Amino acid sequence: MTHVRSELAAAIPGMMRNIDQIRNIGIVAHIHHGKTTLSDNLLAAAGMISNELAGKQLYLNFDEQEQARLLTINNADVTIVHEYEKQNYLINLIDTPGHVDFGGDVT
Fold first, then answer.
1. What SUPFAM superfamilies does the record tag this protein with (predicted)?
2. How far apart are the first and last CA of the chain?
3. Which CATH number do you get for residue 100?
């Protein structure tokens, strides 16, 4: 698995030059509707975190305050490499805050 990740990481700069291989996805919804849980599950499907931690890790809530409050305060992003029909795509995944007080970060 580590070898595969190394190969994918090495391929990313080349993929960044081809806009046809890039997808930007923002997850937007009301507070506590599962945006970060969905992000965790997408990361697990990409092999970036374990399936057992998906939905519990809240990987993109890396700030101490976010972890303590169990909510996203700041936009968090991650790049995932996903293969579809034998073609690799870069998916820039953005997990956005759901609370109205942090809505300025979303726009």
1. P-loop containing nucleoside triphosphate hydrolases
2. 37
3. 3.40.50.300
pLDDT in tens, 51-95: 887 777 777 777 777 777 767 777 788 888 888 899 889 999 888
- Give the three-state DSSP class for 76: strand
- The Cβ-side half-sphere exposure at 93, using a 13 Å CA radius, reads 20
Residue-number span of the structural domain to which 53 is assigned = 2-105
pLDDT given at position 3? 52
| Close Cβ partners of 54 (under 8 Å, ≥ 6 residues apart) | 37, 40, 41, 43, 44
Q: Contact at 8 Å (CB) between 23 and 81?
A: no
Q: How many CB atoms lie within 10 A of CB 63?
A: 13
Residue 3 burial (CB < 10 Å; 0-12/13-18/19+)? exposed
Given a contact cutoff of 8 angstroms between Cβ atoms, the answer to whether 24 and 36 are in contact is no
pLDDT tens per residue, range 14-63: 888 999 999 999 888 887 777 888 888 888 888 888 888 777 777 777 77
